[in-house]
């Protein structure tokens, strides 16, 4: 008889007390805030104001020098707020809790302590399998910020980033159409006596909603495509206007794209973004048109799109300008940092008061859904499937 494979060791299978039974006594958190080093990310997870609140609650915050520079927060501001400034990133990553905006690099994972806790975005389209392998080898518990849910089942981090991203996508389109940026010189919006700019948006979530708000507010003509009629109807209600919408009919998509000045990909999903616009169709768009993918962290609905960076954000293909930066919200780093910080500080204070991370995990389903690694076990079904890891249901570890 062949050997039976099991993801558990003999010790794991022995009866034990509940693994997450911990004291509800207030605890002191030791948090590391590193300087972002990848994708030209400019945001910072905690602002000086948030640090001050945490320090007054008895927590220790270690901030790497220069961590807030991209969002115009100085080391001196963090120091005055009570944070310790570290000049060695190894020391920051060695803290029991590390909070970042984007996932750590493999080198940074090497600095982390075994069984520590990581909170950051995931952006699976930007990661390789070995990223997860290195985290798992250190038995790290990793929480994807964009997967966190509140008591209403919504995703607050994803929502706030979507609001910023949707608005930014439209502002970006306006910049890329401008003559000084080698655009075709079309003003985004509507001017009396001049045909309004035509914008096509794929998706019906928060990014699409805020992109539509910004575009219609400027006077542009907007058309939205999505696979679900119910979502399109709800979007019209949220926007409080009968904005033109359509299902993903290939003929309608073709006609809209051949006329439009701007196309924005705004499909939000936990899985890989589905392909909607084939490269052949992009090649038929008018010269000088702009394509922006707002959810590049999960891929793109445009087959011609490639991942780009803030340093080199665009490329031109078939005379169509493509923008494929994964972290669009970082263009407005100070606003984004404040929004994220407001969210993180609420969670961190609650974690400390309720008795620690494991107590919070055991009590809140919204946190459970965000854990893609629990002490080295792969606990997020979509990520495990995408990178071919054995999936372990988190419920096996909590009661």
TrEMBL record:
Residues 32-165 form the Alanine dehydrogenase/pyridine nucleotide transhydrogenase N-terminal domain. Keywords: Oxidoreductase. GO terms for cellular component: plasma membrane. One of its GO terms (molecular function) is alanine dehydrogenase activity. Pfam families: AlaDh_PNT_C (PF01262), AlaDh_PNT_N (PF05222). InterPro entries: Ala_DH (IPR008141), AlaDH/PNT_N (IPR007886), AlaDH/PNT_NAD(H)-bd (IPR007698), NAD(P)-bd_dom_sf (IPR036291). GO terms for biological process: L-alanine catabolic process. The keyword Disulfide bond does not apply. Residues 177-324 form the Alanine dehydrogenase/pyridine nucleotide transhydrogenase NAD(H)-binding domain. It comes from the Bacteria. Its EC number is 1.4.1.1. Belongs to the AlaDH/PNT family. This is alanine dehydrogenase. It comes from Ornithobacterium rhinotracheale. The lineage of its organism: Bacteria, Pseudomonadati, Bacteroidota, Flavobacteriia, Flavobacteriales.
């Amino acid at each position: 008889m062949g050997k039976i494979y099991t993801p558990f060791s003999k010790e794991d299978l022995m009866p034990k007390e509940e693994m997450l039974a911990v004291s509800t006594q207030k605890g002191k958190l030791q948090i590391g805030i590193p300087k972002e080093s990848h994708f030209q990310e400019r945001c910072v997870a905690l602002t000086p104001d948030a640090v001050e609140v945490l320090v007054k609650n008895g927590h220790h915050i270690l901030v790497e020098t220069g961590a807030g520079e991209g969002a115009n927060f100085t080391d001196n501001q963090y120091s005055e707020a009570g944070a310790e400034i570290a000049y060695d990133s190894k020391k920051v990553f060695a803290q029991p809790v590390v909070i970042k905006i984007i996932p750590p690099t493999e080198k940074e994972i090497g600095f982390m302590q075994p069984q520590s806790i990581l909170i950051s975005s995931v952006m699976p389209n930007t990661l390789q399998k070995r990223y997860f392998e290195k985290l798992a080898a250190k038995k790290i518990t990793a929480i994807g910020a964009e997967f966190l849910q509140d008591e209403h089942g919504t995703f607050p981090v994803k929502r706030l980033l979507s609001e910023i991203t949707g608005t930014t996508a439209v502002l970006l389109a306006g910049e890329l159409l401008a003559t000084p940026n080698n655009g075709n010189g079309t003003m985004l919006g509507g001017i009396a006596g001049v045909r309004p700019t035509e914008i096509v948006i794929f998706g019906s979530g928060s990014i699409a909603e805020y992109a539509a708000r910004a575009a219609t507010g400027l006077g542009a003509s907007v058309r939205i495509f999505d696979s679900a009629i119910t979502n399109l109807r709800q979007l019209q209600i949220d926007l409080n206007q009968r904005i033109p919408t359509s299902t993903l009919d290939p003929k309608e998509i073709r006609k809209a794209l051949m006329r439009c000045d701007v196309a924005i990909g705004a499909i939000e999903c936990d899985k890989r973004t589905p392909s909607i616009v084939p490269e052949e169709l992009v090649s038929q768009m008018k010269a000088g048109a702009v394509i922006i993918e707002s959810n590049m962290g999960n891929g793109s609905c445009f087959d011609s799109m490639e991942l780009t960076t803030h340093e080199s954000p665009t490329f031109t293909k078939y005379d169509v300008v493509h923008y494929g930066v994964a972290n669009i919200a970082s263009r407005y780093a100070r606003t984004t940092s404040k929004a994220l910080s407001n969210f993180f500080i609420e969670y961190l204070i609650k974690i400390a008061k309720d008795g620690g991370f494991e107590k919070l995990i055991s009590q809140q389903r919204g946190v459970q859904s965000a854990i893609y690694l629990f002490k080295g076990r792969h606990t997020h079904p979509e990520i495990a499937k995408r990178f071919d890891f054995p999936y372990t249901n988190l419920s096996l570890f909590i009661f």
